[in-house]
Amino acid sequence: MPLALLALAIGAFGIGTTEFVIMGVLPEVADDFGVTIPTAGWLVSGYALGVVFGAPLLTVLGTKVSRKKMLMFLMALFVVGNALSALAPAFGLMLAGRIVASLAHGAFFGIGSVVAADLVAPQKKASAISLMFMGLTVANIVGVPLGTYIGQAAGWRVTFLLVAALGIVGLLGVAKLVPETGRPEGADVRAEFAAFRNVQVWLAMAMTVFGYGGVFAAITYITPMMTDVAGYSAGAVTWLLVLFGVGMFAGNLIGGRFADRALMPMLFGSLAALSLALLLFTATAHNKVLAAVTLTLIGALGFATVPPLQKWVLDQASAAPTLASAANIGAFNLGNALAAWLGGIVIAAGLGYTSPNWVGALLSGFALLLSFLAAFLHRRARTGGRVVTGSPAREAVPAAARH
């Protein structure tokens, strides 16, 4: 695999660390600024919303420059945002720093997915995408626990300074290793938005929202579930999240490899198994060992859907893939926010800390139904010799048919 994928993975590692490490140091941040935990929670919500809105906005702005230059700009923006968070004298500036950093998130993964896919042969595109996303999964195994430990031992500001330093490394890696291909031929705002006339792009983003949202319905409330239901100590939750990260790492690699061979069957299998695992979690959460095993499995199955979903978007929007790819990254965060909200509703209704698992199973099951619909429409378009939507799909159908 090209070394440029390493530079993209380093950037993804830094982004993944800053996204999730705030959850580990939230009490320290709240104490430092003299705000409540719910108020400090805006540092999580603000970041997620920044990803949703920043992904399409910055991707559109980036159509005027080469993808390499845009990736360098995004990493620079990431560095500025984390440095501002680390040095912020007031909570409002800390929140501003989080939002600035989040603006780079969706566009980086969206543009990075296109760059990664272009670096390899057509039959290896999903694997290349998964290697870039490997940085995000490794962040959950190493970056988040280490950042949490440093934040608790040396102060949360040190954690964010180190994350900013990671961003500098990623920036230098992109500058050195990612080839300069010039501005994508024919890239403009109208062409990028035209990709959304293909219903398959919308179906892919909906699958992303509901499929990965199912994972977050459970993970958002994993601490009270593991302490109050499974019987773990609060300190053990960090290591349980490491297991979840290990599952993400394995699922990402498996999803990328098998999606190159059979994309839709891989998606069907992972979504069906994810829905089943979430259903089982309502029972296994009452046993320490089974809870740990199921949590790892959910991480693996949840992230096994990422490479095939991202590649499906690239195939269906092949004429102008950058904005669609970035919007799909925003869809992950939209799913996170939706699932967390729904999970909170069922807990507030008195259904218990395992009830979000039922929500997650329903969300993932709905994503599975959407994947069946997407496959049916795609097959009908091929066998009927026509496309089912607007002209942007005319090049996308043959591209997808090759995988």
TrEMBL record:
PROSITE patterns associated with the record: MFS
Annotated transmembrane regions: 42-61, 73-93, 99-121, 128-150, 156-178, 199-223, 229-250, 262-283, 289-309, 330-352, 358-377
Superkingdom of the organism of origin: Bacteria
PANTHER family: CHLORAMPHENICOL EFFLUX PUMP RV0191 (PTHR43124:SF3), PURINE EFFLUX PUMP PBUE (PTHR43124)
A GO molecular-function annotation: transmembrane transporter activity
Topology within the bilayer: Multi-pass membrane protein
Gene Ontology annotations for the cellular component aspect, listed alphabetically: plasma membrane
Annotated Major facilitator superfamily (MFS) profile domain residues: 4-382
Entry protein name: MFS transporter
Compartment(s): Cell membrane
Keywords assigned: Cell membrane, Membrane, Transmembrane, Transmembrane helix
Signal peptide, first to last residue: none
Chief location: membrane
Keyword check for Membrane: yes
Alphabetical list of Pfam families matching this protein: MFS_1
InterPro entries reported for this sequence: MFS, MFS_dom, MFS_Efflux_Transporters, MFS_trans_sf
Keyword Protein biosynthesis belongs to the record: no
